[in-house]
Amino acid sequence: MTSSQIEVLLQTLISGLLLGGLYALIGIGMTLIMGVMKIINLAHGELMMVGMYVAFVLFSSFHVDPYLSVFVAVPVLFILGVLLQKFLINPVLKVEAIIPENQVILTVGIGMVLANVATIIFTSDYKSTPVEYATKAWYLSDIWKETPIELSLSMPWSVSFLLAIIITVLLWFFLTKTDMGKSIRATAQDKDAALLMGVNVERLRVFTFGLGSALVGAAGCLLLPIYYLYPDLGGQFTLIAFVITILGGLGSTVGAIIGGIILGIFESLTSTYVGMGWAPVGRFVIFVAALIFFPGGIVAILKRKRFGK
């Protein structure tokens, strides 16, 4: 490979890693909800869209930086998620219906309502937050003057990636070091055993849906300086979160992190070497490959290696 080809490959891998970090944060929210509640939240992307509009309103009306709007969007999305779970999803879960997946159909309806409400309030026009650092980048030559390869890091992508790592670490600390977090993990592993141990599963489901909504709301704030915003944005990110959840393994946060990074790198490679329009196709290829060759997801592979099987 020539130096220019190596430079393009490394730049593509770096871009994919940065994208994968944000994808992982989006996927973790859906994974948590699926692990505890055993349902697929098909309104996940629309909840992220709501978080992005919260950040957009704060930026356009009060000049609040999108990254700082995380501190507002996260509690707003947490409350919204709690209300949706408590007053809409929980009652449906208790009803015996002909279609056992009626709660999944409900989340589709919730997503449609959120998208239409956003269209009514903000119209279908594309929105953006023209921050000063949107086009800024860091270059390897600024650090190493004699470098034979010129690599760059987009400032908004880099900041979003670092903040996604911080949020993920805080989530890991919460899930592993707090009683509530341990209860969430126990419920995801075995709901009946958690009930026998005195865990209030009903309350935990409400909290988990709020937590998953808050995480994807935070991801929306991190994506806003990078993406254009419009009401139908959520659909593609619901699909992305679903692919990550399947690829990582149902209910596995570690699998969601690895799956998000794999998907981000794969999409970046597809865009560079095949074409920008082929990225969604690459996403679909990974989804089908995971279903055929890794039905248990990445977490199943890690467990087999751990136990030497």
Automatic annotation (TrEMBL):
One of its GO terms (biological process) is amino acid transport. Its main location: membrane. It is a multi-pass membrane protein. The chain crosses the membrane at residues 12-35, 47-64, 70-92, 104-123, 155-175, 206-227, 284-302. It is found in: Cell membrane. The keyword Transmembrane applies. GO terms for cellular component: plasma membrane. The keyword Transmembrane helix applies. Keywords: Amino-acid transport, Cell membrane, Membrane, Transmembrane, Transmembrane helix, Transport. GO terms for molecular function: transmembrane transporter activity. InterPro entries: ABC_BtuC-like, ABC_transp_permease, BCAA_transport_permease. Belongs to the binding-protein-dependent transport system permease family. LivHM subfamily. This is Inner-membrane translocator.
